[in-house]
Structures are given as structure tokens and as C-alpha cells.
């Protein structure tokens, strides 16, 4: 029998709470649902259950029968099985061991001057083009694109192509467009790897090419994975954070008066970015139980990070964007086995952006209410189409 609950429950938006999902969370931690493309799935909404499942090796992104696996949407990369069922855990270990050095606290600390310089340059350009501008394009989308592209060694003139491909890949409504974007992204990755092998530079792809155990395809897969993960979510967090901060003048002033709050703004923005992101998808690798609910091998399990990040038992006044929130154990970077190795870099970018933006533009304000912002349709992250500001 088809599930009565059909996803998505609430349209994602930076300034609107997901009240239907919140109401569902209060009923039970696990629910039988139908995905946006009509496939059956389990939706988990409890904070503790999601935290444990994020670290549970009995769940994964691969499937033993990928052609017949349930899907959450039409995106070729994000809404269905990914990877090889037999080697998934081994590949995760390889990925983490090869990439961890580039995202270690020490390496990220060494990147701080460069991230600060890129941010300052973007804000210089913003000041010259103002006083009216689109903050999404000028800062929130541009900063993570420039940082991750520079880290990987993507030439400046080729970066606009990456925007086109990553946007296409995340299209949850058009399977053909998503597959074409994925093919373009991977094809570019392989071509770039070939160039780096011939002429290495001081960048992640060149360093990965020095690893004699990785093929060109594996280096390209790692690099393009870093590109996608390092851009989309950080850009979304910057968008939602700037929109909500600008929509609350008293909190903007608090950060202006106390620049050290930039770190807290960054964490609260990461917690809030779950407003823009769909549930994390996993497949059961074996039969298991979630909060007493039996889940069969191969079934789709969707982890509602938004619900977890707005659980009142964990986050007092969870619906409020609060730059002074001290205890903030959000789950947007995951937990355990799959904790995001890029978290230190994302935090550096966010802290730098908020710290510099408020100090450089103390009178900045939105020209429309945050409630009236529009978002990209059918995209993985419902990033605002623009954040119009003046100062």
C-alpha cells in the first residue's frame, strides 16, 4: 500500500520554517513516506536516531541492485545509489586517507591568509559596484567557488564551466540534464588530471596524481567530489546566514559590536542551512531496526537533518536564528564514519566572510524582506536566486 505521506512536506526557503516536518517529528522518530518521484522510503526525524544512523555502517550510499533501487529524485548523483556495494567502505577509507591531509586543522590554518585575501577582494569589488548589489552572486556563491577551485588547481578562466555543470548535476527534476552535467563534470576532471600529470602545480589534484595507487579516474572522482561538496553546501550556508543575519538588525549589530561572534554566526548558519537541503539518503545494507521500526535490506532511508537541527530537546528556541547560541551540536557536517572532512575549511570560509562583511558594510540591509526571497527550483540546495542588498 502506498504511503500517505508524500515528500517534500515543505518547500525549502531560507526564511521559512518547515512546519509540516516539525509536526511530523513530534509524532514519531520514523515514518513511512513516498519520495518526490513516488518511491517508498523511511523518513527519520529524531535527532538521536539520525545521529546514530549517520555513523552506522549498516547504512550506505550504494545498493546491491542499483537499477531497481528507490530514489528520492531525478539527480543522477544525489538522489539515488552511488558507488559499488561490495567496495563502498573500502572506497570511503581510501577517500578519507587521501584527502584528510589537505583538510587537516594545520593545513586549513595555513590557508587562512589566502581565504581572507579572496574575501577582501570580493568585498572590494562589491564596494566598487554598490551601493545596490546581489550579495548571493557577489559573496555567498563566489567565495566557496574561488577557494575550492584554487585548492584543486582549476584555472580561473575555466571556473564558470564548473558552475554550469554543478548546477545541472543537482537538478532533481530533470534526469537527462543531471546526467549530462555529471558527464561534463567527470570528463573535465579526467582532462584536468591529465594536464596536472604533465605539468604538476601546488594544488590538491597535482598532489593526488603523485599517489601511485590512484588511477586517473579515481583522482578525477576524488577531485570532482571535493569540488561539488566544497561548493554547494558552503554557498548555501553563506546564503542563508547572510539573509537571516541581515533580516535581524539587532543580531547584525551584535556581530558588529562583537566581531568574535563570527564563529557563532558560522555555526548557526550551518545549522540553518538544513532549511535549504533535502534529507540525506542512505540504503540499508542489511535488515535492521530504527526506533523499533523494522527496515529491510535495500530499503531507502532518508535522514531529515532539518528536523534533527530543530529538535527542541537539543536546541532551545530551535526555530530562532541566534548568533549567540553557545551549544550547537548540529548534524549538517554528519557524524562518525562520514563526518565531513571539509568542515574545517567550510568553517574558515564562513567565519571569514561574516567577520569581514559586517565590519566592511556596517549599514548593509536587505532591500526586500527575507520572506520574499525566491530560490532556485529543482536544485539540490534551494539557494536564493538573489540576495538584494544596499548600504
Automatic annotation (TrEMBL):
Q: Which InterPro entries match?
A: Cyt_P450, Cyt_P450_CS, Cyt_P450_E_grp-I, Cyt_P450_sf
List of residues binding heme: 340
- Molecular function per GO: heme binding; iron ion binding; monooxygenase activity; oxidoreductase activity, acting on paired donors, with incorporation or reduction of molecular oxygen
Concerning PROSITE patterns, the annotation shows: CYTOCHROME_P450
Q: What is its cofactor?
A: heme
Keywords assigned by UniProt, alphabetized: Heme, Iron, Metal-binding, Monooxygenase, Oxidoreductase
The UniProt similarity line reads: Belongs to the cytochrome P450 family.
What is this protein's name?
Cytochrome P450
Amino acid at each position: 500500500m502506498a504511503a500517505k505521506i508524500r515528500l517534500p512536506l515543505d518547500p525549502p526557503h531560507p526564511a521559512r520554517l518547515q512546519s509540516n516536518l516539525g509536526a511530523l517529528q513530534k509524532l514519531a522518530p520514523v515514518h513511512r513516506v513516498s519520495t518526490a518521484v513516488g518511491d517508498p522510503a523511511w523518513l527519520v526525524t529524531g535527532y538521536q536516531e539520525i545521529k546514530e544512523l549517520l555513523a552506522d555502517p549498516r547504512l550506505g550510499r550504494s545498493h546491491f541492485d542499483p537499477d531497481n533501487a528507490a530514489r528520492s529524485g531525478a539527480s543522477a548523483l544525489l538522489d539515488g545509489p552511488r558507488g559499488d556495494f561490495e567496495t563502498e567502505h573500502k572506497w570511503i577509507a581510501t577517500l578519507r586517507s587521501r584527502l584528510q591531509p589537505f583538510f587537516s586543522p594545520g593545513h586549513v590554518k595555513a590557508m587562512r591568509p589566502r581565504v581572507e585575501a579572496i574575501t577582501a577582494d570580493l568585498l572590494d569589488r562589491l564596494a566598487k559596484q554598490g551601493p545596490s548589489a546581489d550579495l548571493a552572486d557577489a559573496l555567498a556563491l563566489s567565495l566557496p567557488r574561488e577557494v575550492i577551485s584554487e585548492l584543486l588547481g582549476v584555472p580561473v578562466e575555466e571556473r564558470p564551466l564548473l558552475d554550469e555543470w554543478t548546477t545541472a548535476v543537482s537538478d532533481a527534476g530533470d534526469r537527462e540534464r543531471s546526467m549530462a552535467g555529471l558527464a561534463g563534470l567527470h570528463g573535465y576532471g579526467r582532462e584536468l588530471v591529465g594536464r596536472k600529470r604533465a605539468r604538476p602545480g601546488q594544488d590538491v589534484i597535482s598532489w593526488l596524481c603523485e599517489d601511485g595507487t590512484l588511477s586517473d579516474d579515481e583522482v578525477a572522482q576524488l577531485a570532482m567530489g571535493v569540488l561539488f561538496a566544497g561548493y554547494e553546501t558552503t554557498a548555501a550556508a553563506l546564503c542563508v546566514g547572510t539573509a537571516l543575519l541581515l533580516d535581524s538588525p539587532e543580531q547584525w549589530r551584535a556581530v558588529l559590536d562583537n566581531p568574535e561572534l563570527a564563529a557563532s554566526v558560522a555555526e548557526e548558519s550551518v545549522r540553518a542551512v538544513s532549511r535549504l537541503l533535502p534529507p540525506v539518503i542512505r540504503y540499508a545494507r542489511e535488515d535492521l531496526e530504527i526506533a523499533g521500526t523494522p527496515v529491510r535490506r535495500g530499503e531507502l532511508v532518508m535522514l531529515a537533518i532539518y528536523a534533527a537541527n530543530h529538535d527542541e530537546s537539543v536546541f532551545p528556541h530551535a526555530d530562532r536564528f541566534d548568533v549567540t547560541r553557545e551549544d550547537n551540536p548540529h548534524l549538517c557536517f554528519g557524524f562518525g564514519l562520514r563526518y565531513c572532512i571539509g568542515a574545517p575549511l567550510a568553517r574558515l570560509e564562513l567565519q571569514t566572510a561574516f567577520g569581514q562583511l559586517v565590519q566592511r558594510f556596517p549599514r548593509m540591509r536587505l532591500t526586500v524582506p527575507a520572506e520574499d526571497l525566491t530560490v532556485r527550483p529543482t536544485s539540490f540546495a534551494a539557494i536564493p536566486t538573489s540576495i538584494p542588498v544596499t548600504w
